[in-house]
């Protein structure tokens, strides 16, 4: 009985790998999305420990954001055993969580932590994320002890890695 | 002397001094852009206006769509008071086909836009203003033949729900100008869609 389970597991992973190799959506369960206002979210911008935080602001309707999501997922996966924490902060309309955001996350097989920021007064919190931020997305904050940078741009995986790698303790 | 000026200019470019676009108080350069009605429009055409509510806008962005009705209302309220709204689509239609000129005409007809909706076809105007997203507001005050930037930023503080707005930033800024005062705040920010360029 035990080996049937193992075979099922192997088959599952084989399928997973195949679909990944072809860039197809995986059947892996995407993580839950946590909905919060900015004040609840704020501590995640100020964690005081030895991890590197990569916080990406995105939305399902934002084409360049969707295009760069795999780079953040790859970063999360590549450095899963290191102190690197990827947080994907969705700015989608909270009314569309069930119809749009969760189906999208499942389709993409997102494995990084996903937060939906439910706080329409962005004029208040944009400067608290970064004084440099005009409000356009995608936007990314990368920080660790002794480093903080803000990027209002689209990333490739290698570009992210170049910033994050020297910060890993 | 020419060389020094050129070097200075290059220095300003490299430090990003020009790339940042307008600040409040700057004179906004006029443009000549194609309107959805087939005519070209310049700011100078608004001879009787006290100013212009210039909004970088587009068709596809959900944040713009959320504001379309409020933009119509703002125009209907403030155009008679001398501040017509002018929307400018800065997006490249190959990078974002939903923002093509044809689609602009369709959207303007669907929503019956009472304001001019122009295409920044060569993408030369939005970088000069320093617009980074849609919607992105530049409130301009007329001064003789020139237009001076009086307010930059958001329309209000709640894109999702017009009835839950607490601060009508743009309307307050126009009201301030009409009362002969300075807008306060002069700058606000909002989430928006990046301006689409070809890679």
Q: What is the name of the CATH topology of chain A?
A: Glutaredoxin
- Count of β-strands of chain B: 10
Lateral arrangement of strands in the main beta sheet of chain A? 1-4-3-2-6-7
C-alpha-based Rg of chain B, rounded: 17 Å
Q: End-to-end span of chain B in angstroms?
A: 37 Å
Low-confidence stretches of chain B: 6-19
Order of H and E elements of chain B: HEEEEHEHEHEEEHE
Determine the CATH topology of chain B: Glutaredoxin
Helix count from the secondary structure assignment of chain A? 6
Query: How many strands in all of chain A?
Result: 7
**Any idea how many domains of chain A?**
1
Q: What is the beta-strand fraction of chain B?
A: 15-25%
Structural class designation of chain A: alpha/beta
Residues in β-strands, percent of chain A: 15-25%
| Alpha carbon gyration radius of chain A | 17 Å
| CATH top level assignment of chain B | Alpha Beta
| Low-confidence runs of chain A | 1-27
How many helices of chain B does DSSP assign?
5
Number of domains of chain B: 1
The biggest beta sheet of chain A reads: 6 strands, mixed
Concise description?
Chain A is of the alpha/beta class. Chain A has helices at 2-21, 38-41, 63-78, 97-108, 122-129, 157-164; strands at residues 33-36, 52-58, 84-90, 113-117, 136-137, 139-144, 147-151. In chain B, 28% of the residues lie in helices and 22% in strands.
Q: What do you see in this structure?
A:
The complex is a heterodimer of chains A (169) and B (199). Helix content of chain A is 40%, strand content 21%. Chain A has 169 residues and is α/β, with parallel strands linked by helices. Chain A has one domain: Glutaredoxin, CATH 3.40.30. The N and C termini of chain A lie far apart (43 Å). Chain B is α+β, with helices and mostly antiparallel strands and 199 residues long. In chain B, helix 3 links the parallel strand 5 and strand 6. Chain B is globular. At the A-B interface, helix 5 and strand 5 of A face strand 10 of B.
